[in-house]
Write a structure and sequence with these properties.
Elements (H helix, E strand, L loop, with lengths): L1 E9 L3 E4 H11 L5 H12 L5 E4 L3 H4 L5 H27 L8 E5 L9 H9 L6 E5 L6 H14 L5 E8 L12 H9 L3 E9 L6 E10 L7 E6 L2 E6 L3 H8 L4 H7 L9 E4 L4 H11 L7 H10 L6 H10 L8 E8 L3 E9 L1
Parallel strand pairs: 4-5, 4-6, 11-12
Antiparallel strand pairs: 1-7, 1-8, 2-3, 6-7, 8-13, 9-10, 12-13
Helix pairs in contact: 1-2, 2-7, 4-5, 8-10, 11-12
């Protein structure tokens, strides 16, 4: 078995309210057609997000900085946030960096080779035979993807220790010249953040035990979500069919996975859903509320932080780690990402 022992999060250095963002959007769109200006403000006001973190100040985000300049900021910020969040996790757990046997990192919002884990290994003096796995193209689902990969490593190696680090800076993927509805929506819902989760193989001690995992693929759905790489940076792909596609597949994701574990929806006390955006989280809420289940933490993380891609589900998990949930209670975690896929985790507090 695998135990989740410690979960910590890291806010980026800048934080902006919706009012501040809207002011910047109005400046950005001042020369755009009136219909686009009105639509842009309406989208930001209606995103149900109060605050967003950013690795860079707004004047840089909304500037005409080149792809190279933005990616250089991504590299610098990834190293800085990775160092901070790993240091916090090690301090909270009492672990030493050279005790780690595996380091898994997730990010989809910039390029860096070597990946950030190499810098962290050197900075913290980790063992030379540590196993590295950078996960770079799973998008919002990668927080759970990373937990699944760690679980696979640790099930086969009881007593070993691992760190899963998520670092996302989607604010840097903003493209000033792109006035499309897709760019407006993605800019309105995405934000930056980092997390670190420490896990250990075996059944000893307290924490959250991973019971089962699942990856569900939506066939012929590559068009739903992703990035196109252009001369000016990442062009977001966010198809309008995403919420309806998730809704149509949802009955094939949650109930069968629970049934495989001899459980019904009612048997699981805690539900942690990645809030991809207002429409998606409301669809999930409508479904799960039929069973008198609460996903207010997922909604609140979206409101307080925005969609931080792979980091979002771990921000939600940190909240549940701090709740003092009773031993024996179960939890279900779900996130969606490009491919298109739904990735699930069944856990139990011990």
């Amino acid at each position: 078995m695998t135990l989740i022992k410690t979960v910590v999060t890291q806010q980026p250095p800048y934080e902006y309210t919706t009012d501040q963002i809207v002011n910047a959007v109005e400046v950005w769109l001042k020369d755009a057609p009136e219909v686009i200006r009105r639509k842009g403000v309406k989208i930001f006001r209606g995103a149900n997000i109060d605050k967003r973190g950013s690795v860079a100040p707004l004047d840089f985000i909304f500037s005409d900085a080149s792809f190279e300049e933005k990616n250089n900021w991504y590299v610098k910020s990834s190293i800085e946030m990775g160092e901070k969040v790993l240091a916090k996790a090690l301090e909270e757990s009492g672990w030493k960096a050279n005790e780690l046997d595996y380091i898994i990192t997730t990010s989809c919002t910039g390029f860096m080779i070597p990946s950030v884990d190499a810098y962290l290994i050197n900075k913290f003096g980790m063992k030379q035979d540590i196993v590295r796995l950078p996960v770079t193209e799973m998008g919002c689902a990668a927080g759970i993807s990373g937990l699944i990969y760690v679980n696979n490593f640790l099930k086969a190696n009881p007593g070993k220790k691992a760190a899963l680090i998520t670092i996302e800076a989607p604010s840097l993927t903003f493209r000033r010249e792109d006035l499309s509805l897709t760019n407006l929506v993605s800019t309105a819902i995405f934000a930056d953040g980092a997390t670190c989760t420490l896990l250990e193989g075996g059944d000893e001690g307290s924490g959250i035990r991973i019971l089962d995992t699942d990856m569900y693929h939506f066939n012929e759905s590559e068009y739903l979500m992703g990035y196109n790489l252009t001369n000016t940076g990442f062009q977001i792909v966010l198809d309008k069919d995403v919420p309806d596609s998730i809704k149509s597949h949802f009955p094939n994701i949650l109930p069968p996975f629970l049934k495989k574990n001899n459980l019904e929806v009612e048997d699981v006390e805690n539900y942690l859903f990645h809030p991809g955006g207002k429409k998606i989280i409301h669809m999930v809420e409508d479904y799960i509320c039929r069973f008198d289940k609460d996903i207010s933490d997922s909604i609140d993380v979206l409101r307080q932080h925005g969609n931080m891609s792979s980091s979002t589900i771990i921000f939600i998990l940190e909240r549940f780690m701090k709740k003092g949930i009773k031993s024996g209670e179960k939890g279900y975690m779900l996130a969606f990402g490009p491919g298109f896929s739904a990735q699930s985790l069944l856990v139990e507090w011990v």
